[in-house]
Structure formats: C-alpha cells, structure tokens
Amino acid sequence: MPRFFIDSNDDEFHLRDEEGQEFPDAMAARDAAMMMLPDMAREKIPDGDSRRFCVTVRDQSGTTLYTADLILKGEWKHVGSPSR
Questions:
Q1: 24 inside domain
Q2: Which end of the chain is more exposed for a tag (fewer CB within 10 A), N or C?
Q3: How far apart are CA 32 and CA 84, in angstroms?
Q4: Residues 81, 74 contacting (CB under 8 angstroms)
Q5: Residues 56 and 15 sit within 8 Å (Cβ to Cβ)
Q6: Is the CB of residue 59 less than 8 Å from the CB of residue 19?
Q7: Residue 11 sits in which domain range?
Q8: Alpha carbon distance 81, 75 (integer Å)
Q9: What is the dihedral of CA 31, 36, 41, 44, to 10 degrees?
Q10: Is 19 part of any domain?
C-alpha cells in the first residue's frame, strides 16, 4: 500500500508528518485528512474571532496532492459586544 503524509497547520503551529500512514489510495488519505479538521478546530477554540485550520496530503515523493482549509470566522452584529 502507498504511504501518504498528512501535515497540519492552525496558523500558530505547523506539524509536518514525517512518518506517514499507509492508505489504499490518495482518496482514502484525503478522507483521513478531512476528518482531522473538525478535531483540530475543537482542540483550538480561538481567543479571537477567526482562525484557519489546514491539512495537506503529500505522497512519498513529497508532492502535495491535496489541501483543505477550515476557516472559523465570527463577527458581532451589534455595537457594544460583550467582553470577557
């Protein structure tokens, strides 16, 4: 089975996958990467109102095959937003 590498980035921390995982094909690696995004967002609830979470799938030669972003953007809709 081919080996794929899934890197992650949350705008504060970049994790380069050095070990990789075996998947039947690139689509299976893409599925695994997509499943990581909600977990990344849950673990890093932003202090501000926006945050970008990104995953990248690379093959054994280091070629980027797929990228996906999950963007969290909040915005107060009235004047005098609450403070913490």
A1: yes
A2: C
A3: 36
A4: no
A5: no
A6: no
A7: 3-73
A8: 10
A9: -170
A10: yes
Residue 52 lies in a domain: yes
Contact 55, 34 (CB under 8 A): yes
Tens of pLDDT, residue by residue over 3-42, are 999 999 998 889 999 999 999 999 999 999 999 999 998 8
Produce one character per residue of 22-51: b if its CB has 16 or more CB atoms within 10 Å, e if not: ebeeeeebbeebeeebeebbeeeebeeeeb
For 38, half-sphere exposure in the C-beta direction (CA atoms, 13 angstrom radius) is 4
The pLDDT value recorded for residue 43 is 82
C-alpha 43/C-alpha 28 separation (Å) is 23
Q: Where are the alpha helices (DSSP H) in 1-84?
A: 26-43
| pTM as predicted | 0.84
The structure tokens listed for 57 are 């799938």
Domain count, the chain: 1
